[in-house]
Amino acid sequence: MELFDSISGLYRHIDNSVEEARGGVQVFDAERLRSTDIDGIVYNAVFNAAEEIRDEARRIIRLCAADIGIKSASIQGLYDAMGARECGGFTVPAINIRGITYDVARAIFRSAAKHNSGAFLFEIAKSEIGYTDQRPAEYTACCLAAAIKEGWKGPVFIQADHFQVNAKNFAENPQEETESLKSLIKEALDAHFYNIDIDASTTVDLSKPTIKEQQTSNYEMTALLTEFIRANEPEGITVSVGGEIGEVGKKNSTEEELRAFMDGYLESLKEGVTGISKISIQTGTSHGGVALPDGSIASVKVDFDTIEKLDKISKEAYGLGGVVQHGASTLPDDAFHVFPERGTAEVHLATGFQNMIYESGAFPKELLDEIYTHLKEKHSDERKEEDTDEQFYYKTRKKGFGPFKQRMWDLDDEIKETIGKELEERFDSLFTKLNAINTIEHVTKTVG
Predict the structure, then answer these.
(1) Contact 341/403 with Cβ under 8 angstroms?
(2) Model pTM greater than 0.85?
(3) Is residue 72 over pLDDT 60?
(4) CB atoms within 10 A of CB 161
């Protein structure tokens, strides 16, 4: 794929499908843009060494998407409707893409189109931004370019996942940690992330005598950052904001914690400020699952009773869209249909798709060996004494996506198509099991 040496080179690449018009662009041949031109633009949006060319490629993608009816949007309206019991019975999948983002996003759009689904989110966590080498503006460009490529129309929901307070840094210098998060939030908003999950659950202090005191730092920080988002969100857009009451991988959440958090949060929030639309809880899962010595994943029992109980309270007492389940992608298949049955609003899925990429029969063994050699050289300090090779590689291979990002994008089209089809089949299964099908009508009615 060609990397252009000038902005004029970008425009020459699309001069048979797009023209500049009134300070923006006009797509006059959408089929040409979709079939050939968009591939080169998104490649430059990610890999061009010149910042001004990368930025212009991203702007072109955003403007082209808007011109043909694709827009980055907030899911707030849908969650408001779910909280009011005006729609429901489905769980919204929130999908983290760590590598070959353009191709994986294309597979998601293909699956969604087959299932008439409009309610799904593309997301990237604060930690993933670092180790996958994907800043928010790049991630948005990849998702919107994939929408163009697959002929998508309508809203695209892009979410900042786990914008998390570092508990150690917060304890040492709360002001500095707060400003760091504000800076990241502003970057995400500028990149058209209109769904943001704040995670201050890391500051919960279980040594405090009352549940409200345990949750105080959590709800105060969540309120402060909610107000920052409201002060910086674009006019006419209400960003969907999420909160979290229990750190994933820790003890299961309780009704008392939910009420203590929400009551304290609403008391802390300035009058007239729109609050969170959903609440993440802990029900027995962990991010990425627990790797056993042979590299397989330990079985996990999800506390669906807690999901059902807290989801009901979140809707009836606080008008939220419902509860959110993290760390779900490595759960067994027979767990997913239970999420919509128990009222789960949203489920986060990440590591399972990473595993499929690395473990695909199409993924080149020599590249995988290079990645594992890199992990052994650069991340051996993360290896526990008792870890087998399989456990070590499983836990650290997410950190191969950043250093080997261009190598993965440059794989033969046939390889990427095979991996994409495998992922598409998995997305087909998840959309169906989560009953996230035929939701376009709900999205059109509540989001537009």
Answers:
(1) no
(2) yes
(3) yes
(4) 27
